[in-house]
Design goal:
With about 250 residues, the protein is an alpha+beta fold. The chain is built from eight helices and nine strands. It is globular. The model has no long low-confidence stretch (mean pLDDT about 90).
């Protein structure tokens, strides 16, 4: 669950690894970028746009920021230097990998509150970034990453309940009712809930063998996103999902 940052503001650190999860334009020559960090959770960072560095700030880019400062929890963080902490050649070259990067970054931005430290989430996403760039089979990476985020947030049910039950995503409890997943009903059917619980314990090499039809893939993915949002940021649409669904159809 959400925790207060480990280190109090004002913030001054010589070096900080950060993963880009979102950005909005601030002016013609600057923007505010949201980054995920191990030490401080999600931080808003003020970025001056230049031809030299603009290509660095893409979704799920892993960067090393130097001389990072932040006056208080209501201000934007600033930095003196930036460089890549890991390669993103394949992620930017392959449309499928790019779509996954956009989806996972938007999911994080819209599901995890800004300004809080969340144990384990950075490690999960850093692993996902590495797999996205280096693994040959990434079609199910988003299932793997989001299920592990659910576990890291402490939301994952400890047991699978009865096979006749549905998992209520708002409470995390099992109910003896028919499943119905919609904008107003949060009941996930047993088979998909059971799979969600099992995924974090699976090796990624086995994730490629998930046997789900198109409707099941959509229901499981949206249910996992909904599960996190209901407990953190509130329900918000992930617009990049449609592109992801089209590319992997």
């Amino acid at each position: 669950m959400s925790q207060t940052p480990k280190k109090s503001n004002p913030m001054l650190v010589p070096s900080l690894k950060a993963i880009v999860i979102g950005a909005i334009s601030y002016s013609d020559s600057s923007k505010v970028v949201k980054v995920l960090t191990q030490e401080y959770g999600i931080l808003p960072v003020f970025v001056r746009v230049s031809k030299k560095t603009s290509v660095l700030w893409h979704p799920l880019a892993t960067l090393e920021l130097s001389e990072v400062k932040r006056k208080n929890s209501n201000s934007l963080a600033t930095f003196k230097g930036v460089e890549r902490a890991s390669s993103a050649i394949e992620t930017l070259r392959d449309p499928k990998r790019t779509a996954l990067a956009f989806f996972l970054s938007e999911f994080l931005e819209k599901s995890v509150p800004e300004g809080t430290h969340i144990d384990g989430v950075f490690d999960v996403i850093e692993e996902a970034v590495c797999l996205l760039e280096n693994d040959k089979h990434v079609a199910n990476l988003h299932f793997y990453a989001i299920a592990k985020v659910i576990l890291a947030l402490g939301l994952m049910p400890e047991n699978t309940g009865d096979s006749s039950h549905s998992l209520h995503l708002e409470t995390g409890e099992w109910h003896d009712v028919k499943p119905l997943l919609s904008k107003t009903s949060y009941l996930l059917k047993y088979d998909l809930a059971e799979l969600m619980i099992k995924i974090p314990g699976m090796d990624f090499v086995n994730i490629r063998n998930l046997r789900l039809n198109q409707n099941e893939r959509k229901e499981l993915l949206l249910a996992m996103v909904m599960f996190i949002q209901l407990h953190h940021a509130g329900l918000r649409e992930i617009k990049s999902y449609e592109v992801l669904e089209t590319i992997f159809d």
